[in-house]
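Progress narrative, Year 2. Work on Exopolyphosphatase from Roseateles depolymerans advanced from sequence curation to structure prediction during this period.
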Amino acid sequence: MEDKRPGDSRGTRLNALDTKTPSFPATMRRMNQAQVPPILAAIDMGSNSFRLEIAHLQHGQYRRQDYLKETVRLGAGLDAQSMLTDEASERGLACLRRFAARLEGVPTRQVRAVATQTLREARNRNAFLERAQDVLGYPIEVISGREEARLIYAGVCRLQASEDPRLVIDIGGRSTEMILGRGTQPLKAESFQVGSVSLSMRFFPEGRFTAEAFRAAQVAAGAELEEALTEFARHTAQPRWRAALGSSGTVGAVAQILAANQLSDGSITLDGLRWCIQQCLEAGHVDQLKLAGLKEDRRAVVAGGLCILYTLLTHFDIDRLVPAKGALRQGVIFDLAARLDPALLGTGRDMREQSVAELQRRFAVDRAQAQRVQSVALKLHQQLLPKADEEQRRELGWAAALHEIGMMVSHHDFHRHSAYLLSHVDAPGFSQSQLRRLGDLALGQRGGLRKLDDQLRDESLTWQLLALRLAAIKCHARGQVDASAMHLSRQGLQVTIRMAKGWSDAHPRAHYLLREEQEAWAKLGRVQLELIG
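Result:
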């Protein structure tokens, strides 16, 4: 019989998400009516371990169907130049092959794979991701630290429901996430570049345990986490949070040690951490460390994890850190379910739609113009690619909605500013990979196409970009447009643009821009445009 681990959520009952929204069973009935697939899978490509979670969301319950975990230590494979070594890459690819075998036959829309801090840092991540996606058979998204924190909270808050304000902490291999939240709403979410793998490699590289190394590691962790003191401190006069929960591997590993040695019920306290550190010092070396409850895959990184935990508890006045039921992988599954049926979370729309609306507000986008361009672009894209994947259409819609956010910086070369902002902004719901794609579309909305020569080898991006560029030309006058005045037909890479009779004479400037567009694509040498009318 498999033992129950801290964070195991099999059969965990889901409560109503919010007192102001319909009950979860009610939204789940709508989900079933919409024929949302019963099986959803999440892959968490962490710095220490890769995890695969397969679950059902039915009848108000989250039920785990399968859970696979492998210690890959991808984060230990980053060299001094932040390049992922061949050995680490091969460990990761071997694990993904095994995950792919387990997922065989599961449709792409039911699977979401996310990568965290190590691949945020790795300079050669694109080369690794290209191989990894081929091996896995599904897209892999690199998510930002704040997005990782949001998804962690999504997993915790729905598997351990409470309306009390809470602090959630997740110590990973190369990063630590901290989230303040109430109910299902994360109020503050941040990620800090310190983790159990990176700290252990730096201060305990040969496995030796000394008091000096523990003190130095705690100082280094404190220096990284110090900037969080103002935002995440409890403040005893008016507490910002009433309970502290710890998610994922490091907290679970230390909780198991404390429980196995009958020092606590699994809750982590300063006394418990001091005892663990003392055991390390008495052992003197990781190979001599004999601790009940310490699993072999955690041995090499336990010291770094203890230092981060000790720093967190002392700096943030945490008297008791309780292992949480949820983690990143469950948050990914809930987020995936919400994408398939946004009503599931009671918001009525995908989190990414909310982020786009917030970015439009923050950067004072001309929403009327954005709506015109979006409407025309989607119609043209439908003509170019009638059977396009729904996610491609949504990406085009978001790119059109945000194509002018760079105007807030400068009208001159605003498309370049738009591209930079979209490629680097934190936008809840979006992965870094998808934001870069939106940035590519924003960059290519005008001007020459050679700047996107490599990206346009992806044919789906080519048709998204052509639709966006033509829509921007059609709406160039920033007034009402007749979308039916332009119609596209395509045979392979040849596209015919038919204009309504008399349109070119009535809109000579737009017709001039279309001629320039024809020349731009001709210079690229891939798509041929023919103008008629």
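Residues 1-34 have pLDDT under 50 and may be disordered. The chain is about 45% helix and 15% strand.
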